[in-house]
Amino acid sequence: MSTVSTLFDRKLNILINIVGRNIRKSVVDFTAAEFSTLMATNFESVFHISQLAYPPLKASGVGSIVFTSSVSGFVSLKSMSIQGATKGAINQLTKTLACEWAKDNRRSNAVAPWYIRTSMVEHVTPDCYMTINRVQHHVGKGRCLNFSMEVLSNKEYLEEVYSRTPLQCLGDPKEVSSLVAFLCLPAPSYFNGQIVCVDGGLCVNGFYLDMIRRGNLAIFLICSCYSLTPFSLTSTINDITLAFP
């Protein structure tokens, strides 16, 4: 940070914290060392970098911090318990700094992506699986780098990702980078303490069924509003069915 301060005349306008690692294991299988590694890599690093960046950010007179979080900080994802915990910690740090450093005209926000179509995700071949298996054989299962390519090369898994994502597609890197760039600009100067999900709607997707074509949704609404049972609405149901073929 002293080098950065020297290069920029001891002033810093923008700090973008990008770091992330995961070890895919169930909770009961994690060792203390693995827990410490993930916490240190994903959370402690950005915490201390932010501490060190505070003086040059304050000296600039105006500044913006953008953290890279993840949807795992909002919803439960399989084999991402500790990684999700670190991202949840980043979310809270984002909010804390937004309040604590606001007096110095420092804004703090975060982006939380879902699966993004990067080269690491796209360029997957059977050789990747062979390499991963060899690494796991030597260093132990779960100790190798667990990139998204491990799961997105699985067609069934990818279809499951699509099914849980309302937009039914992966994100594009530009859809994340453009948001980060926007948060750093003067334009969103009143935007502070927010964690923006770039996830195609994953985090807001509850139990949703496309029933409008059969008229069921309209039927449920009528029953709810008038406290009537579907059996007493035979004629109405027929009308709705005709209205929504």
Structural class: alpha/beta
Largest sheet: 4 strands, parallel
Number of domains: 2
Helix content: 40-55%
**Low-confidence segments:** 123-148, 211-228, 230-234
Strand content: 5-15%
Let me know the average pLDDT: 77
The number of distinct β-strands equals: 4
- Could you tell me the CATH topology label of the largest domain: Rossmann fold
Helix and strand run: HEHEHEHHHHHEHH
From the 3D coordinates, which CATH architecture of the largest domain would you assign? 3-Layer(aba) Sandwich
| Arrangement of strands in the largest sheet | 1-2-3-4
| CATH H-level superfamily of the largest domain | NAD(P)-binding Rossmann-like Domain
Question: Span between N and C termini?
Answer: 64 Å
- Shape field: globular
CATH class of the largest domain: Alpha Beta
Secondary structure topology:
Blueprint: H1 2-7, E1 14-17, H2 32-60, E2 63-68, H3 81-100, E3 106-113, H4 119-122, H5 126-139, H6 149-152, H7 155-164, H8 173-184, E4 195-198, H9 216-226, H10 234-243
Helix pairs in contact: 2-3
InterPro entries: NAD(P)-bd_dom_sf, SDR_fam, TR
Family: Belongs to the short-chain dehydrogenases/reductases (SDR) family. SDR65C subfamily.
Keywords: NADP, Oxidoreductase
Description:
The protein has 245 residues and is α/β, with parallel strands linked by helices. The protein has two domains: 2-117 and 170-203, 3-Layer(aba) Sandwich (Rossmann fold), CATH 3.40.50; 212-243, no CATH class. It is 49% helix and 9% strand. Helix 2 (32-60) runs parallel beside helix 3. The protein is globular, with a radius of gyration of 23 Å. It starts with a helix and ends with a helix. Mean pLDDT is 77; it is low at 123-148, 211-228 and 230-234.
